[in-house]
């Protein structure tokens, strides 16, 4: 599905969606093909569901969204992350 | 204020205020390698900071994949005696597999004029803005 179809099918709803196809334009992530993974009663549940799925399937591209958003408008940023040490001297 | 070394990384305790409610956030990483400041969703939910329909969504991509976060302007973020008012932070799951409830990134550190003193293991703020 595309975003307008998702909005029409699940009006005024928190969802966890998965990008089946997506691309990056400048600093925007554009979702071309979307699957609805879970319908959630509220935003906290949607984010928790996202976190669980993201940990379970780290290579898949999930988002927590509300269908009242006109545009998905997802910004993309690069981050190298935290590199910790478990050494005893630390 | 004291920097506590854990996993070889410098941590402090910070305070976040949202809609006049205050929460103390332990295990906040002081990180000049991060451009932005982030807090853990579970911690800020205590002061009612939860996702809203029109929040700006960000996908932060890097080594080990991507993470989706949302952004929100909070009343203040405070470290030691230095507070930054009306500050935009990112909220994410921060499920990194070790105890970290926030990241004070370059935006906060620069705005606050922080001095990271690794000799004394202190996070310092000059008394007068320069």
Can you tell me about this structure?
The complex is a heterodimer of chains A (90) and B (130). By secondary structure, chain A is an alpha+beta fold. Chain A has helices at 3-9, 43-56, and strands at 14-25, 28-40, 62-66, 74-79. In chain A, strands 3-1-2-4 form a four-stranded antiparallel beta sheet. Chain A is globular, with a radius of gyration of 16 Å. Chain B has one domain: Cathepsin D, subunit A, domain 1. In chain B, strand 2 and strand 3 (21-30) form a beta hairpin. The longest helix of chain B has 7 residues, at 106-112. The relative contact order of chain B is 0.27. The chains are: A alpha+beta (90), B mainly beta (130). The A-B interface holds A 29, 43-44, 46-47, 50-51, 54-55, 58-59, 61-66, 68-69, 72-82, 84-87, 90 and B 5-9, 29, 31, 33-36, 41, 45, 50-54, 56-68, 93, 95-96, 98, 100, 103. Strand 4 (74-79) of chain A pairs parallel with strand 5 of chain B.
What is the strand and helix layout of this fold?
The complex is a heterodimer of chains A (90) and B (130).
Chain A (H helix, E strand, L loop, with lengths): L2 H7 L4 E12 L2 E13 L2 H14 L5 E5 L7 E6 L11
Chain B lengths: L3 E3 L2 E10 L2 E10 L7 E3 H4 L12 E6 L2 E15 L2 E11 L9 E3 L1 H7 L2 E3 L4 E3 L6
Parallel strand pairs in B: 3-8, 4-7
Antiparallel strand pairs in B: 1-2, 2-3, 2-6, 4-8, 5-6, 6-7, 9-10
What's this entry about, in short?
The complex is a heterodimer of chains A (about 90) and B (about 130). By secondary structure, chain A is of the alpha+beta class. Chain A is about 25% helix and about 40% strand.
